[in-house]
Design brief:
The protein is about 75% helix and about 5% strand. The protein is built from eleven helices and three strands, in the order αβααβαααβααααα. It has a three-stranded mixed beta sheet. Helix 4 runs parallel beside helix 8.
């Protein structure tokens, strides 16, 4: 569908866009290369380990870990949409991206962003049921409900991305082709069009703003209800419940903070947007595995067990040719 859209559009002169990147300073580029590469590899390994652990460990076959594994899968996408090209372009003088590549990058940025928002809401609902209705937890959060959450997340993410994409693909680009960014930033891309794009800019901001602010509103309400419910029942269980919630709240703040400033803040700043984009693309996918496993003893034990099994399997595979 994405290919058909691009085949039937873009009658403009511009065939590629020039990316100005992050900086022209060689020292800062070297620092960014080490920083980005380290966190990219760490995030890929951390999220892959969570998926492998949840899939292989029968003790983790529960709704909470099912949603966590899917969040890690999406974080792999968040890391891979912009980070590899950013790292590759750091030492290149001429940083370019084709029109097709730019549209594809925008499409995947918004689809993984939309899916992650919905997964965070599903995880908040999971914690609400676990804390407020513990006796009915397995009845409410049954496999059918978990699959429904996952399907709904992908449908909403896909719809969120596709709603604005046809308008962007059909924009005429007949002159300026320089983007002051390290990736195809949708708000800045629209400004390069040869026509008045005020309405489209408003639609993009409204689309991203509606799904972001709406998601945050739902999450805040759910967390308030959970905290009030915990405080009503017993002070002894409050600390344990709030400790469980703290990981989710931290992940939500790290995810939504940069997005709100980039897409809905009325006073855009190039340098701030670049910093927040790096934070979202590089740091957030790395921090999510750390946040969700740091205070979860069950997950830490399972991941240690999975690592030992991988090491043992590696040793056996190396010994097999000898035998």
């Amino acid at each position: 569908m994405l290919t058909k859209l691009m085949d039937g559009a873009n009658q403009s002169v511009v065939a590629e866009f020039v990316l100005l990147g992050l900086t022209n300073s060689w020292e800062i580029q070297l620092l960014l290369f080490v920083f980005s590469s380290t966190f990219y590899v760490a995030s890929m390994m951390g999220n892959s380990l969570i998926i492998l652990t949840v899939t292989c460990d029968p003790h983790l076959h529960s709704p909470m870990y099912f949603l966590l594994a899917n969040l890690s899968f999406i974080d792999l996408g968040v890391s891979s949409v912009t980070s590899p090209k950013m790292i590759y372009d750091l030492f290149r003088k001429h940083k370019v991206i084709s029109f097709r590549g730019c549209i594809a990058q925008i499409f995947f940025i918004h689809i993984v962003g939309g899916v992650e928002m919905m997964l965070l809401i599903a995880m908040a609902f999971d914690r609400y049921v676990a804390i407020c209705k513990p006796l009915h937890y397995l009845t409410i959060m049954n496999p059918r409900m978990c699959i429904s959450f996952l399907v709904a997340a992908w449908i909403i993410g896909f719809t969120h991305s596709m709603v604005q994409l046809p308008f962007v693909v059909n924009l005429p680009f007949c002159g300026p082709n320089v983007l002051d960014s390290f990736y195809c930033d949708l708000p800045r891309l629209i400004k390069l069009a040869c026509i008045d794009t005020y309405r489209l800019e408003f639609m993009v901001m409204a689309n991203s703003g509606f799904i972001s602010i709406g998601s945050i509103f739902i999450l805040i309400i759910s967390y308030v209800v959970i905290i009030l419910t915990v405080q009503k029942h017993s002070s002894g269980s409050s600390s344990k419940a709030l400790s469980t919630l703290s990981a989710h709240i931290t992940a939500v703040a790290l995810f939504f903070g940069p997005l709100i400033f980039i897409y809905t803040w009325p006073f855009p700043s190039t340098h701030l947007d670049k910093f927040l984009a790096i934070f979202y693309a590089v740091l957030t996918p790395f921090l999510n595995p750390v946040i969700y496993t740091f205070r979860n003893q069950e997950m830490k034990v399972a991941m240690t067990r999975a690592c030992r099994q991988l090491v043992s399997y590696r040793k056996v595979s190396l010994l097999m040719p000898v035998l």
